[in-house]
Design goal:
426 residues; seven-stranded mixed sheet; 8 helices; 17% helix; 26% strand
Length: 426
Amino acid sequence: MMKKEIIALLLAGGQGSRLGVLTKKIAKPAVLYGGKYRIIDFSLSNCINSGIDTVGILTQYQPLKLNSHIGIGKPWDLDRMNGGVTILSPYLKDETGEWYKGTANAVYQNIDYIDKINPKYVIILSGDHIYKMDYSLMLDFHKKNNAEATISVINVPLEEAGRYGIMNAYENGKIYEFEEKPKNPKSTLASMGVYIFTWEILRAYLVKDNEDTQSEHDFGKNIIPTMLKDGRSMLAYRFEGYWRDVGTIQAFWESNMDLTKRVPEFNLFDPAWRIYTPNPVKPAHYIGPRGSVKRAIIAEGCMIYGTVRNSVIFPGVIVEEGAEVEDSIIMSNSRVGSGCFIKQAIIGEGVEIGRNVKIGIGEDVVNEFKPSIYNSGITVVGERASIPDNAEIGRNVMIDINVSHDDFCSLCVPSGKSVFKGGMCE
């Protein structure tokens, strides 16, 4: 394999537990987004648009759908003999094998893969952020400043800074302190989870970190603070533009809704920076004679006979006559029956919603089963669920994957309740 100046390592093994039922059977980076994409498409497209043609994708949790989506990397022009995309999952080495213990350990376990390519630099990426970024500009910054680590940062509102890793840096970008989710943040420069390291330096730190039994083997908690303590040359690279961590139900819903604004903050259709994905082979969408669509994304193969407002509708969805869908996300191949009313909901793939069903009605009560996940008024229906005719479902309700009509204890599911496969109602 020809030596590469830089390779990308894309961390895509996370469970994404804060997305609740949406990630019950798939890894977070494989969750659908924006009408026809999966979340990982954005980091992969950034790589190829930035001239990075060698990408290792580190997978672990529920990788099946993610692996089949990536395939041999053809949509991103990463099906190459020299470089291209490689799926890196935990495997048995000699007599031992173990799950990745943290983000740094995941990279450590793949040192052989990186050494074989022998790059001068590596860029570490998260597979669960929505943004467009030219990594080649960040690499130029890293080289120009003789940095050993460059961390991409974005300005966030002060009241939100406590949710992020905060980089405290001088005017020239030199980082002097890193605080993980500080109670009293000193700056608003949040780490975006995009790091460029000089490989020789990072390699030594990964080996040292692996020997430390007290370490959590994490970039944010261990590698970066240790490098900082050792006085390594570490710089903050300021990014301006749209960037969203879509790791919670609310953030995921809000980011999709951003796309439906009259002037979207984030342009999915920029010819100068294309977002690539495997395209579904489906006919153009069809809007029936009584169908109405306002400020919505409607993908290929949809048939809209009802009303859709301010929503994101994925390929193959059918909205029957008299149905109203508002402020919602409806994923591929789902059907909304006639006379339905759906507001502020996320409907998974292949869901069958009967006739005259109401979803997202009533008062805003947090979910009893998972109050930390379903608490922003959004009702979430898991993939391949089937909802009976005339059901009335409140807000912050969770409907499990594969739920059938028999699993509903009642046609009325109040706000904050859940319906589980097997008929257990909460």
